[in-house]
Please model this.
Amino acid sequence: MTLIQCPEYHEEDLWYNTDVLQAVSLQRNIETEVLDSYPVFLYRWKSFPLKIKAHIPWLNHLSLVKIVSFAREKKVPSLEIITNQRYKNIEVLPFRMREFRSATFLIDLTQSQEEIFAGFTSGRRNHIKKAMKENLSVRTEWDENIFNQWWNIYRETVQRQGFVSQNHEFVLTLLRKGICKLFTAWLGKEMISGSLVVCNNYPMWWLGASLRQYSQLNAPSLIQWKVIEWAGKEGYNFYDMGGASLASNHGPTNFKKTFGGELVKNIHYEVIFSPFWNKIVNTIRDVYYKKLKKSAY
Model:
């Protein structure tokens, strides 16, 4: 596993791994580049360039000039830059601009486990205690049979919740390479829940799934606690809960919030080179996500 240099936290640090970049290129029509040690993604539909995304935690003028020149060379309708801080000089670019935010919750693992647990809401603590009383076991050992059991639960969860599914071979490839760790909850000999955690520069919750008929057992809460225990023992400084919506009454975000993490926001700059084609591309993307439930970009 080869890590691209990333000295500071970034929400999408999964992409700072050359094995991940290679797997993405093989599974989807995405060209991956490394520019100034930062991952850059060129999304295509057949030979038509759709968009470029660049993950640059600390944006500076030199990196901005390079990424804009790269995007113009590839003739994409737009460029999206995801960064940790507001960069005022981006406003001097002679293109239409859009700014929006994304977020996640970070749990401070330098605290004692007692302090971390005390930081959960009382309801979340009670759910974890209840799950322990049900004698659920959480395991990290896996083989392809266990993975496929979890994948069936994941697919059922995706369909029930209306999410967009990840690619089976892509996820399995990352697990085989040790980039992800699978935590599964069992009631006796039956798997009832499971979560995939990215183990790159820091642990990040990526995919979760549970059987609906066992929701009263609170297995997802117990899994998250076991992930936090494991990550603390491994010496990590924080645990990324895997993204949060800034909209109100968002179920997954409300769940993550109960674990007491700090809300951290990222800034997205969309530099629009061709408003007409960018509007068409975004419309197609929305159809893929909202109607077809497939990944676009």
